[in-house]
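Example S7 (structure tokens).
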């Protein structure tokens, strides 16, 4: 009998106890593994032994890769040092010099920077386009990949993944989706035909704002390529951070349940507030909810400085997805380096606030934002 998502996420530990019956996997905080003799070394290279050197492989990082692959219902996964390195090794496993990538233009700011500045030096060309338009018009003879996010940042557009996959299949392109905001609790792109799914595990998978990590999942063939890139570029994750991320995943389902319930309630409450121009909160992401991020625009209706000064216990940060509610300011952080016209076109306004809704009591969250907005109202 197969296990449900919530059960699978709790039972992620694959423990290697070396004879000691530990309940959870020990941390293999070692840079290398020893060999009994030369035969033993030979066995590693024949594939009969798992571990040589931590940059090449480690039980804790393997455990994390497999755990996320299991939740995404994909064959295999690898852990990397960050979300951005996951994206980089994912892309390099399908694209090479001379290739062309079509990327959604409303990507996470750091991803946009990576694609614009680094891929060019690899000789990989990128077109940023609206994925709400007909994608076929942008396909060139050297196009190899369609890249997007299942829920975009910070305006929370829900990607039509079925359509992206359909176009890709027609032209024999690969697809890659950043599933960080949705998590496999809400969306499982691999099951919809997406080739490579990437995560900033720094966010909901870890869940406690205490690690930086990434994961790439997909077919055995593509993950073998991604792994080779990860080993050669040295973008491996540390065993301790992998262990912490696995610990975080065990509560992913219960955290997401509370996160999404609170976010829905906050989005409903703030849409009634006179200081708020617009609330961005998706609909119909999944029957389990619509995600944990609520973005509001208070341009023209409220004083942004007063709002940020009145947040009391809610922290101002340049990240998201912790158990504590926090806010970020896209124009001042994640999207500050975008050209002005791109900011404007994407709707990154001076009154745009991204709220990462935590797992506190719903009323405390709603009251604090309502009071801050009351004070800030012009
Ligand atoms: C944070 C984030 C990233 C980058 O991840 P890091 O772990 O900071 O490298 C990529 N995509 C999305 C959607 C993110 O939120």
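Recovered sequence:
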């Amino acid at each position: 009998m197969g296990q449900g998502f919530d059960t699978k996420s709790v039972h992620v530990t694959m423990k290697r106890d070396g004879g000691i019956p530990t309940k959870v996997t020990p941390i293999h905080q070692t840079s290398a593994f020893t060999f009994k003799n030369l035969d033993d070394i030979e066995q590693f290279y024949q594939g009969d032994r798992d571990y040589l050197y931590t940059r090449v492989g480690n039980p804790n990082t393997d455990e994390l890769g497999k755990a996320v692959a299991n939740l995404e219902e994909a064959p295999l996964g690898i852990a990397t040092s960050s979300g951005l390195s996951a994206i980089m090794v994912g892309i390099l496993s399908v694209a090479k010099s001379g290739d062309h990538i079509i990327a959604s233009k409303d990507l996470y700011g750091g991803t946009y920077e990576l694609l614009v500045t680094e891929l060019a030096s690899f000789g990989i060309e990128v077109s940023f386009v609206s994925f709400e338009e007909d994608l076929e018009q942008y396909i060139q003879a050297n196009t190899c990949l369609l890249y997007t996010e299942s829920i975009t940042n910070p305006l929370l557009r829900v990607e039509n993944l079925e359509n992206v996959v359909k176009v890709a299949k027609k032209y024999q392109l690969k697809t890659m989706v950043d599933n960080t905001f949705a998590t496999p609790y809400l969306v499982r792109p691999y099951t919809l035909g997406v080739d490579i799914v990437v995560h900033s595990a720094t966010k909901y998978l870890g869940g406690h704002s205490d690690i930086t990590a990434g994961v790439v999942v997909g077919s055995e063939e593509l993950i073998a390529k991604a792994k080779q890139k990860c080993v050669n570029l040295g973008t491996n994750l540390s065993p301790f951070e992998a262990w912490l991320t696995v610990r975080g995943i065990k509560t992913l389902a219960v955290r997401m349940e509370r996160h999404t319930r609170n976010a829905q309630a906050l989005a409903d409450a703030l849409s009634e507030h006179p200081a708020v121009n617009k609330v961005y909160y998706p609909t119909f992401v999944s029957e389990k909810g619509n995600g944990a991020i609520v973005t509001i625009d208070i341009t023209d209706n409220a004083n942004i400085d007063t709002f940020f000064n009145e947040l009391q216990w809610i922290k101002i940060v340049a990240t998201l997805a912790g158990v504590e509610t926090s806010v970020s300011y896209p124009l001042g952080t994640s999207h500050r380096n975008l050209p002005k016209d791109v900011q404007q076109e994407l709707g990154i306004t001076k009154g745009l606030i991204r709220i990462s809704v935590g797992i506190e009591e719903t009323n405390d969250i709603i009251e604090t934002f309502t009071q801050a907005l009351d004070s800030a109202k012009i």
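Notes on this example. The pocket of pyridoxal-5'-phosphate is lined by residues 82-84, 108, 110-111, 149, 153, 178, 180-181, 200, 202-203, 212, 214 (CB under 6 Å).
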